TrEMBL record:
<dbReference type="InterPro" id="IPR015424">
    <property type="entry name" value="PyrdxlP-dep_Trfase"/>
</dbReference>
<dbReference type="GO" id="GO:0019346">
    <property type="term" value="P:transsulfuration"/>
</dbReference>
<comment type="pathway">
    <text>Amino-acid biosynthesis; L-cysteine biosynthesis; L-cysteine from L-homocysteine and L-serine: step 2/2.</text>
</comment>
<keyword id="KW-0663">Pyridoxal phosphate</keyword>
<dbReference type="InterPro" id="IPR015422">
    <property type="entry name" value="PyrdxlP-dep_Trfase_small"/>
</dbReference>
<comment type="similarity">
    <text>Belongs to the trans-sulfuration enzymes family.</text>
</comment>
<dbReference type="Pfam" id="PF01053">
    <property type="entry name" value="Cys_Met_Meta_PP"/>
</dbReference>
<dbReference type="GO" id="GO:0005737">
    <property type="term" value="C:cytoplasm"/>
</dbReference>
<dbReference type="GO" id="GO:0016846">
    <property type="term" value="F:carbon-sulfur lyase activity"/>
</dbReference>
<feature type="modified residue" description="N6-(pyridoxal phosphate)lysine">
    <location>
        <position position="220"/>
    </location>
</feature>
<keyword id="KW-0456">Lyase</keyword>
<dbReference type="InterPro" id="IPR000277">
    <property type="entry name" value="Cys/Met-Metab_PyrdxlP-dep_enz"/>
</dbReference>
<protein>
    <recommendedName>
        <fullName>cystathionine gamma-lyase</fullName>
        <ecNumber>4.4.1.1</ecNumber>
    </recommendedName>
</protein>
<dbReference type="InterPro" id="IPR015421">
    <property type="entry name" value="PyrdxlP-dep_Trfase_major"/>
</dbReference>
<dbReference type="GO" id="GO:0030170">
    <property type="term" value="F:pyridoxal phosphate binding"/>
</dbReference>
């Protein structure tokens, strides 16, 4: 062991600890280091110019740029998102939240004078970013219904640079036809971005349908345990990786290595959790559809869903754990249900192993104007139910007793 006896206490306490040789760790190590030492001035200069490292040298410089723990998760997510597509240049950024994944991508892709087409059926935060922040930067935004891709096409202007979709949409569970949107983008040479949080990568992989960029709130199904905030962006090619990476680094969007670790731990059981979410939600959607106190149920796995055929084509092997439904009696009746559940928890967010329920108009989508809310199907009474991995009969029993109280 090297001797530090010539150093004072303070120097020994703060000196870099050397870890030599490989550590045969089965679990992903958390590299908490904000910075990484370089082998030489030349090595440092090369890394600062963001060029590829020479053979045998470390590629790490500073964690706001890249970190070995995050890198491992990013490579893993890329593999999952690419699926059957042939995209050798695909890559992922794991970010500090779903909103940072969305906002940094939009800021990287759009500039003053550009125009972007969004769907009316999107997460409230994305809606607010598109209708409040983008116009302040001189970016023109048009909102269209996702029900027909012709609506996107009709909105395209000579300066349109981005087509944005979310499928299934939060909270209405409307779908966007990914192949049609991807083809439209390719035809007009416009970048397409899709938020696939609600379906999860297990059920929906937009990159397989010629979509250029997929974003997720990894806080949800990717993490799966309601114990982290994170996001991810997977891009289809190197040019987009370079373009978005520039903004990620300068806006400081990278996830902390601790959260990247938790994310990878969650991903280890993603397939198991999603099978259960898919199975439970289908059973519960069928139960709700047949309940006399329920007005309507929105779940892509039900034959009554207006886009069930599309769902069968682009959601495989299942339809996720997200359900929206309306109780007869509107907002007041809905409120009674969410306040009466016992096993299910009244809370925002979704995608965790525990079931969560909320009222979209007064909680997650309260910042969206009532007129736009109603246009996009978010009635005052609409409840959003994130079906967890509990015993489905227990969930049905809980809903039965809550609905009795209406
Ligand atoms: C579909 C969708 N996208 C993005 C977000 C934002 O994610 P985060 O809360 O991780 O920033 C959410 C949050 O609920 C969401 O539901």
């Amino acid at each position: 062991m090297e001797s530090d006896s010539h150093l004072g206490f303070d120097s020994i306490a703060t000196k870099r600890v050397e870890v030599k040789g490989p550590v045969n760790s089965v679990s992903l190590p958390i590299y908490t280091s904000s910075t990484f030492f370089v082998d030489s001035a030349k090595h440092g200069a090369t890394l600062c110019q963001q060029e590829k490292t020479e053979k045998g040298t470390s590629p790490w410089l500073y964690t706001r740029w890249a970190n070995p723990t995050n890198d491992a998760v990013e490579r893993l997510i890329t593999k999952l998102e690419v699926g059957k597509a042939n995209l050798p240049g695909a890559a992922t950024f794991v970010t500090s939240s779903g909103m940072s994944a969305i906002s940094s991508s939009l800021l990287a892709l759009l500039k003053s004078g550009d125009h972007a087409v969004f769907t009316t059926n999107i997460y409230g935060g994305t809606h607010e970013f598109a209708t409040d922040i983008l116009p302040k930067l001189g970016i023109q935004v048009t909102m269209v219904s996702p029900l027909d891709i012709a609506n996107y096409e009709a909105a395209i202007l000579p300066n349109t640079k981005l087509l944005y979709g979310e499928t299934p949409a939060n909270p209405t569970m409307l779908l966007t036809d990914l192949s049609a949107l991807g083809a439209l983008g390719r035809r007009h040479n416009i970048t397409t971005v899709v938020d696939a949080t609600f379906g999860s990568v297990y059920n929906t992989r937009p990159l397989e349908h010629q979509i250029d960029i997929v974003v997720h709130s990894a806080t949800k199904y990717y993490g799966g345990h309601s114990d982290l905030i994170a996001g991810c962006i997977t891009v289809a090619n190197e040019q987009l990786h370079h373009q978005i990476g520039h903004y990620i680094r300068l806006l400081g969007c990278l996830a902390s290595p601790h959260n990247a670790f938790l994310l990878q731990r969650g991903i280890k059981t993603l397939h198991l959790r999603m099978q259960r979410h898919n199975d439970n939600a289908l059973k519960i959607a069928q139960f709700l559809e047949n309940h006399p106190k329920v007005e309507r149920v929105f779940y892509p796995g039900l034959e009554s869903h207006p886009q069930h055929e599309l769902a069968k084509r682009q959601m495989q092997p299942g339809y996720s754990g997200m359900i929206a439904f309306e109780v007869k009696g509107g907002a007041e009746a809905g409120r009674k249900v969410i306040e009466s559940v016992e096993l299910i928890t009244l809370a925002v967010s979704l995608g965790g192993v525990e079931s969560l329920i909320e009222q979209a108009s007064t909680m997650t989508h309260t910042m969206v104007d009532k007129e736009i809310r109603e246009k996009s199907g978010i009635t005052d009474g609409l409840l959003r139910f994130s079906v967890g991995c509990e015993d489905p009969q227990d969930l049905i029993n809980d809903l039965t007793q809550a609905l009795k109280k209406v």
